[in-house]
Structures are given as C-alpha cells and as structure tokens.
Amino acid sequence: MADISLTGYLVLGVLSVNDASAYELVEQFSKGIGEVWRRADRNLYDVPKRLTQRGLLTARQETSVGRRKRTVYSITPAGREALKAWIGTDIQPAAMEFEGLVRLLFADQGGVDELRATLATVAEQARERRDLFISHAEYILATAGGSQPERAHVFAFANRYMIDHFSLMSDWAEWVLGSIRDWPDTVTALVSDRERTRRIFRDNALPASARPVEPLPVAALRTEATTPEGELRQALLRAASAHIPLVSAHLMIADAIPPDSMRRSARLAHRAEAFAHQWCALLESPGMDPACVVELIDAETTLSSSDGRRISGVEDICAWFAATATAVAQAAHSITAFHAEERDPGRVHVTLEFAWQGLAEAGQAMRARTRHEWTLQEGPGRLPVLRRFRVEILEPFAPASVEQVLASLRSVWAS
After folding, report:
1. The predicted structure's pLDDT at residue 75
2. Matching Gene3D superfamilies, A to Z (predicted)?
3. Do residues 76 and 56 make contact, with C-beta atoms less than 8 angstroms apart?
C-alpha cells in the first residue's frame, strides 16, 4: 500500500507485538524509534485513526470512573499483511536533519564564539544521546530482553548503530572545535587556513582507513560536557532515561501474574512501581507535555504538598506538575525505599522514599531526600490512578557540590 506513510508502518510495527493507546505509542517512540524517524511524532495521534478507517487497525474504548476515555488500538490481519508487504519493498535513501551542521555551513555570517558554542552543544547532545542508547543496552541485558524480548536479536544491531552514530557525531564536533581553536573570526580563515583547508579536502577523498590521524590539543576539546557540571548533567540525564524502560519492565512482570492468583500482592506492587517510574519520568522531562499526567490522575485526586497546600482538580494538578517539572534545569529521582500494600480491594497504599539530585538553571548542584505516601486506585487503565498524595521532606532541598551529587548518584546505582 504505497499511500501509507512510513509513520503508519512504524505504528503497525509497534502494534504487531502489543495493543496500545496513542499515548503509549508516543512513549514507545520516545525509546529510540523517534531517533531514527523524528517526523513520526508530528502526527502520531492522527495516524492510528487513519489506519483504523482502512481496516488495518481496530479501536476499542476503555474507561473507568472519574477518568477520561482512552482509545486502544490493535492490529488486524490486514494490517499484518500490509506490514509484511512493506518490509519486502525497496527502501528510500537515508536522509538527515542536523541543525548544527546547517549552522556550520553558514558560520561565516556569524561570530566565532557562536560557532564554538554550536559545536560544543552538538558534542554534548551527541554524548547524551549516546549514553541514552548505552542505558537501553544495559536495561535489555538486565531484563533478559527488555520490553520487547522477541525483538532483542534485531534491536541489538540497531542499538549498536545508534551508539556508534552519536559517538561519531561527538568526535567530529570535538575535532572541528580543535581545528578552529585559533580562528579570530569565521571569515579570515578562508585565506589564512587555505593550505589546511586543501589538506582536509584531500584527506576527505581518501578511504576513512587511509586518512592520517590528526592529534588534537586536549585543552581545545574541553567542552561543557567534559566539565564537572557537564558530567553531572549527563549523569542526571542517564538516571532520568532509566524510568521509562522500568515502567515497561514492571508492567510486563505484573501482566504475567494472574489478577486472582496467590501472588496478587506482587502483581499490585509491580504495577505501583511502574506508576512511580512513570511519575518520575514525567517530572524529569522538561520538554514533556504536562497534559500527559492526566493518565495518572482523575477528578478525585488530591495532593498535599510539602508546603502544606492541598491541590485538587485535574487542571490545578497539571499546573502544579508543570511548575515542578520546570523548576530546575535537570533532575533525577532515585527510589531508595518502596512498600506497597492493598488495604482495600483495588486500593493500594504506597510508601516510598526518593533521593533527589538536580541541577539548577544557574548551574548549582542540588540534592534532597523525601518520603511520599500515595493511595493508588486500580482500574482498567494501563496504570493505576493516584487518589491521595502526601510528601514529607527528610532532607531539605539544598545546594551541594557537583562531586557530592555525583557521589550520591553512584551510591544509588551501586545499590
């Protein structure tokens, strides 16, 4: 079916393993597919509807008291046939969208400091993405296959490509930074570096294995990512990126336990822990749409914040959530204690403690410890719903050295 977009086939591919809502599809795409096909999320909520109209998907409504309806999609036999047929067609040439490279092409219209800042950012962002895919590999190893174990054998190759891709991007940005270390501006090098420019083009025409290795001055390569603050930012990002895979892992374990079995308490505990990781993932993603929190709350949810305020109502809770998520530049919550107990049928009381580490907008490292008490209500949704929320400050939010915060993160990882 030539008129199905690549995004449509991506949706069919994800749904060929598990049913999912549009929100869950967005979550799946955030785990790595979005790095391969970034245009996928531009109309991701509309694509399943169009595929349903064509008979490639079916849609069913799921709802519970006090919550909005959600549409869950399933692939049909016709959808599987369309996906299989597409896999056998010719592929289009690879395309690239790289704003940093575009800015380099027109760097002669700006200042050299702006060019260096662009390259430093490219290097840092590439390392962050590389570390994200390294964390994906670690998660798949730790969980014997990850959230889609039936695809681990092909995911391994894609994971290697993404790690090597972002490693190359980081190395390239550092090489350019070292090469322009003596430029007074972005124009005069056209004349002063003429011979060097010719040599680079000459080397470019050689096979990669035949190019001479050009040593770079270490001082010229010290971008923000190699500073203590940059190391902390990467460590926080890596810690934050671990939550979404853990959501899938706990749900997968819970789904393997029958609801009416003798291990019901273990099933509810895994679902509660999946909720906790989803909550943290949203709080630690400044670019996340706060509206995503509506999956976790409903009209009966009440929050008691550490400053004594009581917040209720979906709109007010979303506003509180957005303010909390954007209060710092980057943060990570590590669960250091967790206990879940079903006190009434379908109602689970959760007590958990967090070690919180963060980096303020001004670059100040911060840390704190909190204890939370949650009441979760089970229902037909992917996750339970938060009914009551109370937080207690065990150690107040306070400035700390970068070394102290990094040590705290390493301590949590080691345990």
Report:
1. 95
2. 3.10.450.50, Winged helix-like DNA-binding domain superfamily/Winged helix DNA-binding domain
3. yes
Residue 144 Rama label (left phi>0; alpha psi -120 to 50; beta): left
Does residue 211 carry a pLDDT above 80? no
User: Distance between alpha carbon 205 and the CA centroid of its chain, in Å?
Assistant: 38
Any idea what DSSP says for residue 207? -
Average pLDDT along the chain:
83
Report the distance separating Cα 108 and Cα 221, nearest Å.
Answer: 22
Contact 31, 245 (CB under 8 A): yes
> Which letter does DSSP use for residue 210 in this model?
G
Reply yes or no on whether the pLDDT at 41 is more than 60: no
- What phi, psi does 359 have (nearest 5°)? -130, 115
**Both 208 and 291 in a single domain?**
no
Q: What share of the chain is helix, strand, coil (3-state, %, to 5)?
A: 55, 20, 30
Task: Tell me which of 75-84, 156-165, 273-282, 322-331 is least confident.
Answer: 322-331
Write phi, then psi, for 392 (nearest 5 degrees): -125, 135
| H or E element at residue 392 | strand 385-399
- Note whether 382 and 329 are same-domain residues: yes
Q: Which helix (H) or strand (E) holds 356?
A: strand 347-359
What predicted TM-score, i.e. pTM, was given to this entire model? 0.52
Closest residue by Cα to residue 305 from 397, 400, 405, 399: 397
Q: Are residues 285 and 219 in the same domain?
A: no
3-state secondary structure of 147: coil
Span 296-315, average pLDDT: 85
Tokens for 160? 């290697």
Q: How many CA atoms lie within 13 A of 377 on its CB side?
A: 18
* Phi, psi for 348 (deg, rounded to 5): -115, 125
Does an H or E element contain 377, and which?
strand 365-377
43 with 167, same domain: the answer is no
Report the Cα 97 to chain-centroid distance in Å: 19
Full residue range of the structural domain in which residue 192 is found: 99-226
